[in-house]
Amino acid sequence: MESITGLILAKYNYWMYISLMMVGLYAMIAKNNLVKKIIGMNILQTAIILFYISIGAKKGATIPIIMHSEGHGHEAVHAVQYINPLPHVLMLTAIVVSVATLGVALALAIRLYARFGTLEEDEINDQVREAP
Amino acid sequence: MNQYPAFLIIAPLLAACLIASAAWLRRSLCFPIAVLGLGTSFLSSLGVAARVLTDGHFQYRMGGWAPPLGIALEVDYLNAPVLVAVSGAALVSLIATRQIIEREQGPKAPVFYTLMLLAVTGMLGMTATGDAFNLYVLLEISSITGYALTASGDRLAPLASLRYLLLGTIGASFYLLGVGLLYMMTGTLNMADLSHLLPALYGSDAIFAAFLLILCGIWLKAALFPLHAWLPGAYSHASHASACLLAPLMTKVMIYVMLRVMFTVFTPAYVFEQISLEGFVVTLASVAVVAGSLMALAQRNLRRMAVYIVVAEVGYMVGGAWLGNQTAWTGAILHLLNDVLMTLCLFLAIAALAGRMETTDFKNLKGLFSTMPFSMGALVLGAMSIIGVPPACGFFSKWFLLKGAIEAGRFDFLAALLFSSLINVVLFFRLFECALYSGDDHHGPGEHGHIEIHEAPLSLVASLWAAAAGILAVGFYSGSIVNNFIKPALM
Amino acid sequence: MIWQVDLAILALVVICAIAAVTVRDLLGAGILFGAYSFMLCLLWAAMGAVDVAFTEASVGAGVSTVFFIAAVFRTTRRTKD
Amino acid sequence: MLVHATLDFPGWGDPNAPAHLHVAPEYLEQAYEKTATPNVVTAVLADYRSYDTMFETAVVFSAGLACFFLLRVQSRKKEEEEEEDRYFRHLATDMVIRIRTPSMHVPDSPYLQQLDPYWTPRSLIVRAACRVLTPFIQLFALYVVAHGHHSPGGGFQGGVILGASLILVALSHDLRTSMKMTPEKLMGVLSPAGVLIYAGVGALCVAAGHNFLDYGALAEWLGTAPEAARSLGILFVEVGVAVCVMATMIIIYANLSSAGGHKQGL
Amino acid sequence: MHEIVSIRPLLAVIASLAVTPILLSARSPNVREGWTFAAGAVKLGIVLSMLPAVLGGNVFCFALTEVIPGIRLAFRVDAMGMLFALVASTLWIVTSAYSIGYMRGLDEHSQTRYFCFFAIALSATIGAAFAANLVTLYMFYEILSFATYPLVTHHQDEEAKISGRKYLFFIVGGSVVLVLPAMIICHMKAGTLDFAPQGFLAGHVTQGLATALLLLFVFGLAKAALMPMHSWLPAAMVAPTPVSALLHAVAVVKVGAFSVARVLTGVFGVDLLAQYGLGTLLAVLASITILVASFIALSQDGLKRRLAFSTIGQLSYILLGVALLTPKGITGGLVHIAMHAFGKITLFFCAGAIFVAAGIKNISEMKGLGRRMPITMGAFFIGSLSVIGLPPGGGFISKWFLALGALESHELAFLCVLLFSSFLNAAYFLPIAYNAFFANPPDDAKDAGIQEAPPWCVAPLAFTAMASVWLFFNPWPFLDLARLAAAQVTGG
């Protein structure tokens, strides 16, 4: 019991990202409304961002901006003092990608609404079936 | 210093930006800039391939940083021919579809060119890069532009495109998650570096999960049955111009990525010895081939038929890659190159036909051999290649695939391939039967009846024949391609 | 960093996510999505990823939400689920 | 499967996890020396992995383009044929006129202001506050761009904030007002121009005989040490990113909120 | 035996292919047909120019690109290929002339298409004759299948469509599903696919595998129409008669038979077949086909259908000859390619001429026709003699050698099959000629006088009939070529 609690506590970020991913996937697959699906998609993407940031986290370290002063800027930098910057870099890119995808998805949703007058997938499907 | 790899990828990007700016100033400049960009890219890819032939594998360090710190383009025997095929096919399809774009898009044509170029940039970048995360970014570029391109089409195109977007994003997210797992376990994103670090971790569940996630993501994007749900809608409702660009390239580049992941990131030693998925995947591929063929058979429209042929072809390549012997890998890689040409030829021909009639339903195709002999001639060559008739290139890759299947003892895959070839014969000859006969049933207009030839625009027909000639040329020289590129790549 | 706060934010994140996908009003869903993004931003700031937090604040909580609202305004708030 | 795999993960926040031991320390320990940029995230983003970032910018660009492509309705004729009510307010008297048929002459005088059909009187306070705030936000955004080397931030964040400030104008006034401030044409040119700046800096490096995006190559021309040149190179590309992102955000917003018509927004 | 590297085989193959663009763009029928003749003459000239050297035991070689590592597209002109190429290119010219008469006589549609695919089909035939390895052979075999499809379905009616489907199903299906895997297995086992005079499989396969491969090949090469893969052939008789004549008496079916002969000798090798007793197996299959086809032919009333079943039987003579595995038998089989071609093409020409002139398709309506069309029916008689194997028809020579071969291999059963089937042949051919000359015509056609088909039709059939007779007296060069080929493959 102790070990399981420990396991849960030690990796709770990872459990969270999995549950967020599941929420996102559920919304994308089970929801009928297109905007809901898009929200689900974004939640899925942010879950992965959460995962990456969790990789980068380091106990007892500080943000990855090197302390320096003009006079003596060349003392050795110890990596252990700073949080891993690479996942942050990657996730900046991923956030940008997600907002770009969001923009395109919403644009498509608006187009569909203009054409079908609804955002519910089943209603659109019905219309398609009636007038192919 | 050899800057070809940089030009290869940057040229279409720069051209895309220039077009987007020029669109507001002088519209007539857009098309020449686009051709220039892709032309430069194509020439650079030839340069890259030539260098690979003489020097073998080489690296281009972006920003001058050595990997794994920086990002490097890695060009080797495997991706050099893919680069040539992708940039060449993109150039051909751009030139071919100009009229279609100008007619359908009107004032938005420059935007369309820009999107096309960006999509090609993404695909070329994916092919050339040596960094797993960079691949994701480029994948997203080609996907986002791909969504926009597929959305321009008939009434249902936006719906198909939104579905494509949702599924595509799931695929890309899976890939990203897989790469994240790999990074967590190894601390690097560089493919070559990963392959050095991974053997120590082969027993790990996390690595296995990463492999599965990456594979699932790629398969979603490559439309391997049963993950193909987005493809038929997206490619059959999209504008012909976008279908001509995306259908030949997108799935093929994803198959290339799969090969890269299997061979470079995870070595065959891991894929085939540590985990034993090949039995399952080859079965899946066989099912994909059969299902794709059968669904193609059920269609009454040329375009939808072609779309399902693409699904079946993905099964060919995935199966070949997973059969797990040299011959089958050779077949898969060769088929990748051939399929770019075959699909290009097929979709260009469809675009040419569709330009002259309302739909590509079979019943509308009557008498086409008389009215559009050149387009149909090229379509026949493409069909021969897809069926697998020598000297068209499709035969030779099928040869290796079949041989690989026999070597691996996978007779189900062998049977699936043969079955699909047979179905392809039926598919295309059903089509030719329609197209051969003019509307009236018996003894047509006789020797003296005059039939007006009503061909597609010259640029389209010329490009179509360029693709058809490519099919023959690759067929005749497939031995050299195998000897000079594919064999060293598999060493 | 204080793990209780961390955990509380995480819980809020999940709650916001579930709420955003279940609420029967698209405008509300958009706003809840904004809240979700903001919580994530706090979380990342807490994890030391300041750059990411900054970006998430401006993109996720700011621009994305505006995009959602704009889109919902242009279409409909109605949803069946 | 994911849950199972998680058991195999290194513990959360473990400094000895492999992710922290391979490449990351090199970034941390060398970034400042080699690029004179204390914010390691910025250094990695815009220098070590600048190739990634260039394509990230291209992603933004293509998203803007895609929205424009999907939504923008350009044929003006069609718009006018639609039977649609248009409202105008006479500024002096606050009287509202409704014009229905498209054939009718559309008044174009300084005394009349076009209104949205869903127009509701807007709060003066909000309007004024926004007007006052906007320049400060923009100033802050510029600071974020320029100071990305030292503090969190950089081209992307700055660009988003710049874009957001203009979106704020559109929200508090109406879309027409903001479109006057940021004409579509300008944004349409700026968005690719941002990518061009980025790729252009890279191409300059090639012209100087180094690899693409190797800012060290610019040292000779700038007359500085390679480290400082790298730092400056980062600044240049950050500006490119900011320009592109700002323009794109506005394009996407304008198209989303007006469903492509650019006539009336939120 | 010298190997002479020369581009001539390639030129011979592409001679007719090269004129297709001209044919397509030709404005007037005369120009189009002029070019057809020109190409035919050039092709025949090239083939003839290689004849002396081949008769001298030399071999012409030409290799194109490497298509699969270790396998090139290559041509190799040896005695066997030369024999077949000579037959095909000679008869092409004759058939072209006949086609002109037939097509113009009936004012058929789409003649340009017809001549184009005709030319392509001939290129493929010559290519198959000169193929140096299995892949090249397969390539031309497939091209021939596709090029003949539009010819078979030329009439474009429902019947033609159904026949076309059947044709493709058997021929392409057989080659894709059966031959292709067989080829791949051969390549895996032996590492090569180049035809060797005495086969290359020896020592690489077990008896079971060899048997399986043999069956895959002989049934897969469905153009040879070995039962039960024969049913496309009668169906394909819906084609215009010149097509049936050239393609289904000469090019297509002979490519099938030739390919089987080539595979038996060049891939398996006579010794291997003898060692595993596969020759007997094939001979039994061929004998069954011969007898069954002959019986079916007896019951057919449609002239072309009767000819079709006759063809099925005659093709199996060729296979039987090769399957006997003795020099005489192989000689007989190969010579039969030539002899049967001349005889059968005469018969088809006659059938076409009868249709053009009198509009008759069925045998029962042909009573007394000989009085109206004496030349045609005379030629028909000679052709029948040749196919039956009676002197003075050229077919006698081949039957003679086949019989000798059967004796040589001490298989009297096959000799009996030969003799009995010849009797059946006589039974289904001679009554036609007898009725045409000696039976009373139906009343309405009694005093019609002489009504021959157009000269373009009659001249070719007269020519081939005379050639059949001439071949009896002077079977050079076919017999020499066949003997040489038989000597090469049996190592004698």
TrEMBL record, chain A:
Database matches in InterPro entries: CPA3_antiporter_subunitC, NUOK/Mnh_C1-like
Membrane topology note: Multi-pass membrane protein
Domain of life: Bacteria
Similarity remark: Belongs to the CPA3 antiporters (TC 2.A.63) subunit C family.
Transmembrane segment boundaries: 12-29, 38-57, 89-110
The protein's name: Multisubunit sodium/proton antiporter, MrpC subunit
Localization per Swiss-Prot or TrEMBL: Cell membrane
Gene Ontology CC terms: plasma membrane
Cell membrane listed as a keyword: yes
Key words, A-Z: Cell membrane, Membrane, Transmembrane, Transmembrane helix
Pfam family, one: Oxidored_q2
Keyword Membrane on entry: yes
TrEMBL record, chain B:
Listed GO CC annotations: plasma membrane
Annotated InterPro entries: CPA3_Na-H_Antiporter_D (IPR050586), NADH_UbQ_OxRdtase (IPR003918), ND/Mrp_TM (IPR001750)
Leader sequence residues: none
Pfam families: Proton_antipo_M (PF00361)
Primary site of residence: membrane
Bilayer disposition of the protein: Multi-pass membrane protein
One annotated GO biological process: ATP synthesis coupled electron transport
Superkingdom of origin: Bacteria
Transmembrane segments annotated in the record for this chain: 6-25, 32-53, 77-97, 109-127, 133-152, 164-186, 206-231, 243-263, 275-298, 305-324, 336-355, 376-401, 413-437, 458-482
GO-annotated molecular function: NADH dehydrogenase (ubiquinone) activity
Keyword Transmembrane helix: yes
Keyword Oxidoreductase: no
Compartments, record wording: Cell membrane; Membrane
Residue span, NADH:quinone oxidoreductase/Mrp antiporter transmembrane domain: 131-423
Keywords attached to this entry: Cell membrane, Membrane, Transmembrane, Transmembrane helix
Family from the record: Belongs to the CPA3 antiporters (TC 2.A.63) subunit D family.
PANTHER family, per database record: NA(+)_H(+) ANTIPORTER SUBUNIT D1 (PTHR42703:SF1), NADH DEHYDROGENASE (PTHR42703)
Protein name as it appears in the record: Multisubunit sodium/proton antiporter, MrpD subunit
Source organism: Desulfatibacillum alkenivorans DSM 16219
From TrEMBL, chain D:
Record flagged with keyword Mitochondrion: no
Transcription regulation in keyword set: no
InterPro entries noted in UniProt: CPA3_antiporter_subunitB (IPR050622), MnhB (IPR007182), MrpA_C/MbhE (IPR046806)
Gene Ontology CC: one annotated term: plasma membrane
Domain Na+/H+ antiporter MnhB subunit-related protein per the UniProt entry, residue ranges: 125-250
Keyword tags: Cell membrane, Membrane, Transmembrane, Transmembrane helix
Membrane-spanning parts: 53-71, 124-144, 156-175, 187-213, 233-256
UniProt xrefs under Pfam families: MbhE, MnhB
Domain MrpA C-terminal/MbhE: 18-73
Subcellular location: Cell membrane
Topological category with respect to the lipid bilayer: Multi-pass membrane protein
Family statement: Belongs to the CPA3 antiporters (TC 2.A.63) subunit B family.
Protein name: Multisubunit sodium/proton antiporter, MrpB subunit
TrEMBL record, chain E:
Keyword set, alphabetical order: Membrane, Transmembrane, Transmembrane helix
Domain NADH:quinone oxidoreductase/Mrp antiporter transmembrane: 131-424
Cell location: Endomembrane system; Membrane
Record GO cellular component, one term: endomembrane system
Transmembrane portions of the chain: 41-65, 77-100, 112-141, 167-185, 205-226, 276-298, 307-325, 337-360, 372-392, 412-434, 455-473
Organism superkingdom: Bacteria
Lineage: Bacteria, Pseudomonadati, Thermodesulfobacteriota, Desulfobacteria, Desulfobacterales
Membrane topology of this protein: Multi-pass membrane protein
Protein name: Multisubunit sodium/proton antiporter, MrpD subunit
